[in-house]
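Why this split exists: single-chain examples teach little about how molecules sit against one another. For that reason, every record in the complexes split bundles all components of an assembly together and asks for one structure covering all of them. Below is a record exactly as it appears in the raw files.
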Amino acid sequence: MSDGAGGAALDLAAVFGQLSLVSIGGINAVLPELQRQVVDRHGWMTDGDFAALFALAQAAPGPNMLISTLIGWHVAGPRGALTATAALVGPCALLTWLVAGAWHRFRDRPWRLLVQSGLNPVTAGLVIAAAIVLSDSTAVSTGHMALTAAAAAILSTTRLHPLWVLGAGAALGAAAVL
Amino acid sequence: MLEGSPLRPPPTVAELFWGFLSIGVIGFGGVLPWARRMMVEQRRWLTPAEFTDLLGLCQFLPGPNIVNLSVALGSRFRGVPGAVAALVGLISLPMLIVISLGTVYAAYSDHPVVARGATGLAAAASGLVVATALKIAAPLRGRWMGLAIAGAVIMAIAFLHLPLVPTMLVMVPASILLHRFAR
């Protein structure tokens, strides 16, 4: 851990820059690692804060990688928000820009299909692991655990908009029925 | 729907910016469905097949799919300025909104009702990730090798708490090799 806002910004850039190029399948796939870095390694916030910021990023419009903006803001203000977001988005955007042109030429090559089929189970495993780690950190009571299970069941069996489920969760929590 | 009708002329840099700005702001709970609606059905920048192909690329690359999609689409139509316009359009307003939400939450997080509401919101958000995980894992049903690989990744990350980068450096090549020899 470094001292001062400059040091914190550098730490943020290192954490998010490293995650950018391994986040195959999006931010959900790297949530446990992000939580490990932010809570255990750098001590920037508690597990509860992390879960709350993640929930805010989910409830807000836009891509849910905006948790990087919130964590950066929490750690080092506006400068942290910009640094963390740029570090997460920059490397993968650059890679996409470089690869986008070549993609068409290689789309029928066997090696590309092979790499894709090899990546699929790893991505699935990462997102399931994220679901386990995150659910564990938000299950502060039996009621909360039941809410997570109910939300998962509703969202995977109906076409209900996720925002309704998030709103209902917040209302149930605020009304102290959990 | 308008999916069968002919494509419109390629978007300008400004149109890319405003197009992605609009899906960034309305895209609650995942932007991808809105992106398809805008690009394929409403503005007709891409055919459905082109969209699926581009999405395949973006899922294959690291990073949020929608971020990659904005860069790939912007650069296809208008080079680097197009990519920057699409990306900045996508994330600028949501960044401001999420910071406002975060500031409000920080100011009132000591209030018991807000604090309890946040725990409920967080538990529901976990449910959203569980639902996404189930959807992503569904194609693995009945594929024993894929399930075993996913299981090893889950064990490493969720239970042994191993760091992500070394885990992926082992599991990705292992998975590709296993798929190679399983043919």
